Amino acid sequence: MTFSTEHRKKNLGFTLIEVMVALVVFSVVSVALVKNTTMSLRQSGMLEDRTIAWWLAQNEMTNLRMLTRGDENYPNSGTSREVVDMGDTSWDVETTVEVTENEYVRRIVISVYRENQEDAKARLIGFLGRY
Questions:
Q1: Using an 8 Å Cβ cutoff, are 75 and 97 in contact?
Q2: pLDDT tens digits, 26-62
Q3: Is 106 exposed, middle or buried (CB count within 10 Å of its CB: 0-12, 13-18, 19+)?
Q4: Domains of the chain, each with CATH number or no CATH
Q5: Closest CA to 71 of 103, 37, 31
Q6: Coil/strand/helix, residue 117
Q7: Residue among 86, 66, 64 at smallest CA distance from 75
Q8: Please, which pLDDT band fits residue 5 given cuts at 50, 70 and 90?
Q9: pTM of the model
């Protein structure tokens, strides 16, 4: 009888070492989980920026292609830049018109930057004919 009562007392709880080991395992797993969550949030933000920038570049190219064809709307070579607000953010849309070997075709390069940043989030290249 004494043996079973003593045996029960030993198995009533965890030892301090067992609790410490469990806390260490929990903390390591928690740090890894927080790190992965942070990385996922950062990647999600980058994808959102690239998607919005791509939409802005496509909108600008579509606007150029929708102009009536003729000499009055045929773009001259050069670079223009405008600020567009979209998604609670200001974006710089830079349009570069380049001359090609064919005088009736222009090369259009549209680069979209997040305001005050130097790396383009999206770059779209297309061609625009005079007629």
A1: yes
A2: 999 999 999 999 999 999 989 999 999 999 999 999 9
A3: buried
A4: 2-129 (3.30.1300.30)
A5: 103
A6: coil
A7: 64
A8: low
A9: 0.73
Indicate the residue type of 9: K
SS3 of 41-85: the string is: HHHHHHHHHHHHHHHHHHHHHHHHHHCCCCHHHCCCCEEEEEEEE
Q: Which helix (H) or strand (E) segment is 96 a member of?
A: strand 89-99
**What token pair was written down for 81?**
């830049």
Give the C-alpha separation, 122 to 78, whole Å.
Answer: 19
Would you state the structure tokens that stand for residue 118, as one six-digit string?
């130097």
- Report in angstroms the alpha-carbon separations of 65 from 40, 45, 51, 74: 37, 30, 21, 10
CA dist 3 and 24 (Å) reads: 34
**Cα separations (Å) of 111 from 42, 55, 120?**
22, 11, 6
